[in-house]
Give the backbone structure.
Amino acid sequence: MDAIALVAGGAAALGVAGLAGVVHLVHARRALARKATALEETVETLTDRVFELAESEELHRGLVDAQGDLIVRRDHAGAITFANRAYSALIGEPPDALVGRAVEPNVLERGTSRRESDGSQSIDERIQTPDGERWIAWRHHAVRDGEGAAQLQSVGRDITERKAAELALAHSRARAQTANEAKSRFLATVSHEIRTPLNGIMGMADLLIDTPLTPEQRNYAEVVRSSGAALLSLIDEILDFSKIEAGRLDLTAAPFELLPLVEGVAELLATRAHAKGLDLAVAVDPSLPARLLGDATRLRQVLINLAGNAVKFTESGGVAITVDRDEAHLVIEVRDTGPGIAKSDAERIFAEFEQGETTFARRHAGTGLGLAISRRIVQRMGGGLTLQSEPGRGATFRVRLPLVAAGPVEQPERLGGLAVMILSSAAVEAGILAQRLTARGAMVTRAASAADIAADGRFDATILDGRMGDDALGDAMTALGERSGRTVLLVTPAARGDIARWRARGVGGWLVSPVRETSLLMQLQPIDNAASTTDGSIDAPALVPSATAEPPLQRLSVLVAEDNDVNALLVRRLLEKLGHTPHWARDGRAAVDMALDPALAVDLVLMDMQMPECDGLSAAAMIRAREGADRRVPIVALTANAFAEDRAAAIAAGMDAFLTKPLDRDRLSEAIATHVRPSSQVPSRRAPKKARQHP
């Protein structure tokens, strides 16, 4: 009661206003306490956040430092706002000491600046560091700091080892290039030095064969010539491979006749094939364009390699060259009846220095470069060369080339249902002849012997294979009786002497294997339209003598500029056999004087490229500079240098053509006929002069 009374008394003493103030004070104190508590909690939260941020910053700095790249940020004035440990090591100062300063590394060399796709800028710099020179690849980005201010962040990576590797690679490439150039010079020199005596060997062998010889002597001379030809082929393969390796195999695109090219390859290899008792036949689809656009020389080289290999490795049967098309591609196939090639070796033989025979007992010589070179050439032409073969089933090499027509495509001559009998036991050649005739609309019947000829049926023409022998041919002609409109005899070039004997027995025409398309069509056209002889037989174009075998229409004055005595003697003798008058100059300066000498009236200059005193290029240029405007003497380079750049240099010096050694009479005659304009006076336009020789 006393306490209550006391309170009551105190309250009474304070009054109502005083009591309200006390209550308000109590509430204020309590609110302040709550705020203090909340502030303490906020401070504690912020302290924890600061610790977290510090830990995060330390973590991120550790990550930035651990990755090894150099990272630095700069403000608009170039002062560093951040630098990682790698960058500070590059400068040689602690990171904290760099902040706020515009510190740059010591740049010794600066590469070219590059703008990247993401907008950044890249540049390589060689920098001097406390540890030596280093190459740094920088990438600069524009970034913003936490307040939105623009900064430049640079990230650099040490590429010193990469630069060292690039430098070593560049040195290696330079050494390889130097070695390759040295190899090319070596091959050019060796080629020249080999071709020069080879020209004498093969040329003198040809001259020797043209003289009266005993059979034994003729055989020896022909062996010398064939061995020289094999050596020349080897040199050409090595040179071609060297050009391909160096990326210098140049191709030309010019119109060429397809059919004569393929038939020419077959005729070139026919002697070798017939000597082995092999067939060699050609079939070109008559619907193909007559003229194509491409490199005829290289295509011919590929065909000679493929068909030559087929003849080399085939012991019985024969070789067929067929040309067709597949959509936009020309397709050439060379099929043989040889031993075939295992699938495991189908790609190996296209590698350099690889051959079908891999043992020491191999029977066929060669470098193993022919197929490798052929595939490279075909690939450069945009095509492909493949092989299909099985052991014991022969081989088929297929060339596909994207060659286009070089003119309008004419409709082929049709045989309009002509009935033709082919009597031959030679499966390859008879099959190809049947294919060619069928493609032109003829109706073909084949028989391997007289017994296979049907007792009935008539034929517009019959092709008899002369290789079957006299008895078999006689039986066939008896079995046919008068059921054949005309009879055509198929012979090899070596058996042309049999034609006259069989003409007396009723054979009206002949074909020479490998058969040319024009000859085949001429022999099968109606007799009224054919070129008939006085005795009713039909002359085939294949038997027309070569133009080069005929005597020249005019005697020419030809200057031979050659420092090698043997080669000079060879060319002079060839010119004399062609009916011309040779003059000899031993060096370039003498050649210039003699070429411009009015007394000699030189019609043609055969210019060696390498001579003492003055080389062939300089001599040609001097002749062109000094000759009058009214007279330009043709100059033909006659050289053992076989590279394309040698040919280009000769033409640039003013020469008109380029002949490589070894030289034969046919190529020399062709060059003369091409570059010397015939005179209207026949057989000569001047009295023959005695050959002049410069001492």
